[in-house]
Write a structure and sequence with these properties.
By secondary structure, the chain is an alpha/beta fold. The chain has eight helices and 24 strands. Helix content is about 25%, strand content about 25%. The strands form six sheets. It has a six-stranded mixed beta sheet. The protein is elongated, with a radius of gyration of 24 Å.
């Protein structure tokens, strides 16, 4: 919503600033700010205890990354007491400071901030009045407040129970695709099946997934190395290394490989789908070929990412008409 001015959110700081009144009404002692496009498992109580123990004004959750990846993140300079003495957004000089938590690594911001509310409100008001600001926490607010307040780093404690810490920023299509492909591995990096960490999400009542038509040497409804949600019907098609959202239907003689099919989409007979993202409620016509020939995909109006993932437009009816016209 446009709650403060006539612009949509101009940056991460402006997004919070436009919800200034909600914070004022709640009157929290401390405000926790999270990014909506990140995937990880974290108990914020641990970060809160760290924030209070250090009498911090601002605590930034950080994750250890190799020095060569520092240019992708906001990088912190941390003293021996874990207080942040410097903050640089996406440094390009190749000399990022090493982490006090692990001298061989760099402590990068996760985009998770715990801020005493009076400090937050003051920083947002100052930033909103600054016409030169990009209104971003990493680029504008945090670098300014490192010298003005007690700013500490909290080293990410991963509760995913894997050998490698799991944190994904899915701010791009390729990152979103890779995060989904993580889930279909034999031993997935991100554990969806941890009974001690249940998912809190909207559950729609759906019948069980169904796999039908098992005709030897002909058509067979099968899915391997895949996640198949409730309500799906794989009717004589073959699905490999893919994620099928609720209500998806894959029809006879079709092949779906390394793809993400959103809710209630339908793949027509004899279609071949590879490394694609099919949006919700989209009906792909019979004999469609997606993800095999980039020039043809671009001609149909599909988006192709840097890594070659094909994204079909969300207007399902338009997709059908476009494909039918080109295959007529």
């Amino acid at each position: 919503m446009k709650r403060v001015h006539q612009n949509w959110y101009l940056g991460t700081a402006d997004a919070v600033y436009q919800n200034f009144e909600s914070i004022m009404v709640e009157k929290p002692e401390i405000t926790l700010i999270l990014s909506g496009d990140h995937i990880y498992k974290m108990d914020y109580q641990h970060m809160l205890a760290w924030h209070r123990r250090n009498q911090a004004d601002i605590t930034i959750a950080t994750i250890q990354v190799p020095p060569e990846q520092a240019g992708r993140f906001g990088v912190t300079n941390i003293d021996s007491d874990y207080r942040i003495t410097g903050f640089e957004e996406k440094p390009r000089h190749g000399c990022a400071p090493r982490s006090s938590f692990n001298p061989s690594m760099v402590s990068a911001s996760m985009g998770v901030y715990m801020i005493n509310t009076p400090v937050l409100l003051r920083s947002l008001m100052e930033d909103a009045a600054d016409t030169r600001s990009a209104h971003d926490f990493g680029a504008d607010i945090l670098p300014k407040w490192v010298s003005r307040a007690r700013v500490f780093a909290y080293d990410f404690r991963d509760l995913n129970r894997k050998k490698v810490r799991y944190w994904r920023d899915v701010g791009t299509i390729d990152a979103y695709y890779e995060a989904n492909m993580d889930l279909v591995a034999v031993d997935p990096e991100f554990n969806l099946y941890d009974r001690d960490w249940p998912l809190r999400t909207r559950l729609e009542q759906q019948p069980p997934a169904k796999f039908v038509l098992a005709e030897e040497h002909s058509r067979m409804g099968v899915a391997v190395d895949s996640i198949v949600s409730a309500g799906c019907i794989v009717s004589g098609g073959r699905v490999v290394r893919s994620v099928l959202s609720p209500g998806v239907r894959v029809n006879s003689y079709s092949e779906v490989d390394d793809s993400i099919l959103m809710a209630n989409c339908s793949i027509g007979r004899h279609s071949r789908i590879r490394r694609a993202i099919i949006p919700a409620n989209t009906s792909i016509p019979e004999f469609s070929v997606i993800g095999h020939y980039p020039d043809q995909d671009r001609a149909k109006g599909y988006t192709i990412t840097e890594s070659g993932v094909v994204v079909v437009p969300s207007a399902g009816a338009d997709v059908v008409r476009t494909v039918q016209a080109m295959t007529a």
